[in-house]
Amino acid sequence: DTGSAAAVPINEVDIAYVTPVTVGTPPQTLMLDLDTGSSDLWVFSSLTPSSQVRGQEIYSPAKSSTSKLLSGHTWSIRYGDGSGSRGTVYTDNFTIGGLEVESQAVQTAQEVSSSFTQEQSLDGLVGLGFSTLNTVRPSSQLTFFDNARPKLDEEVFTADLKYHATGSYDFGFIDRAKYTGNITYTPVQQSPGYWTHSLSGYAVGSGAFQSTQIQGISDTGTTLLYLPTAIVTAYYRQVQGAQNSQYYGGYVFPCSSTLPTFTFGIEGARFTIPASYINYTRISPTSSTCYGGLQSSSGLGINIFGDVALKAAFVVFSGTNPPRIGFGTK
Ligand SMILES: O=C(CCCl)NNC1=[NH+]CCN1
Fold first, then answer.
1. 33, 35, 170, 307: which one is catalytic?
2. I need a surface site. Which of 16, 99, 214, 233 has the fewest CB within 10 A?
3. What pTM was computed for the model?
């Protein structure tokens, strides 16, 4: 089997992407954030306090003839950006892009943090990290990809995220029409459960490529690109008026500045992020100061190759043994 579904940016700066999924019988359609940086599938639900729901679609297990309570099981998750949620667990039929998993663990939120309440177009997350990261207790649950794996034509899913446009996620096949040339693969270290791999180096604008291994995680659930401070300062040194603002919590610059491109390596291949992707957003709607899409990872303890980097490539997440990740030019 295979599946294919849209990845729709939820606002005008691509802060996150959502994908239509169906849960239950008859199908309830929700828009969920497919997140390779976590491994819980959770949804706004009939159990979420109405004070914490602001426009989101909800899953009501009571309205599904195929829902089953996973008795005695709970979950609680905290994301790298400080957001979080917690609740109980049902199993039910779950589909993405025509690919169905029966009795998928669907984690129903009983509490969500304010940033999720404020994100009206996001109804929950589908974790696509390794199932070892799943927070359901007393027994952890499998991700949608792990459940679908036995029925997939190929043990892969792909991400084709786009700048200010709708892209796609495919399951079980690699669509040759979505990239040119060949996919370059590199090994993944799956502990503790992220898609952890190395970049082979980087270049700022037209500068020389610096060959240096940079370990981090490819994370569709993180908006920006977070790299070591030395690389980030070298980048913003090329931007007139750029500064690392304590007030705004990162590098800002005049919106009129000319930004260089940023190139990253995967083995011998090179992927260039256009300057426009790094001119991320105005710090407020009428401001002429802009916030960068490349920021320092020093506060995170991990480098994160988020959407700003991933949308510059066609990315193959391969669940083979051993797992690997591949990047193609598009
Ligand atoms: O939590 C992380 C970073 C893991 Cl190091 N990514 N996934 C995500 N989901 C919602 C916000 N961020």
1. 35
2. 233
3. 0.98
Q: What is the spatial distance between Cα 251 and Cα 297, in angstroms, rounded to a whole number?
A: 12
Tokens standing for residue 17:
């992407």
- Kindly state if the Cβ of 79 falls inside 6 Å of ligand 1: yes
- In terms of Cβ atoms closer than 10 Å to its own Cβ (0-12, 13-18, 19+), residue 153 is exposed
46's torsion region: left (phi>0), alpha (psi -120 to 50) or beta? Answer: alpha
| Catalytic annotation, pick one of 14, 92, 219, 307 | 219
Mutate to test the pocket of ligand 1, among 85, 222, 227, 305 (most ligand atoms within 8 A of CB): 222
| Distance from residue 212's CA to the centre of ligand 1 (Å) | 25
Evaluate: CB of 222 within 6 angstroms of ligand 1. yes
Enumerate residues 6+ apart whose C-beta is below 8 A from 284: none
Question: Is the CB–ligand 1 distance for residue 80 below 6 Å?
Answer: yes
Q: How is 152-181 classified by DSSP, letter by letter?
A: -SSSEEEEEEETTEEEEEEES---GGG-EE
Instruction: Quote the ligand 1 centre to 17 CA distance (angstroms).
Output: 13
**How far is the C-alpha of 181 from the C-alpha of 153, rounded, in Å?**
22
Backbone angles phi, psi at 157, to 5 degrees: -135, 155
Question: Is the beta carbon of 35 within 6 A of some atom in ligand 1?
Answer: yes
Distance 218 CA to ligand 1 centre (A): 10
ipTM of the complex, rounded to two decimals: 0.92
Q: Is 123 a catalytic residue?
A: no
Is-catalytic flag, 35? yes
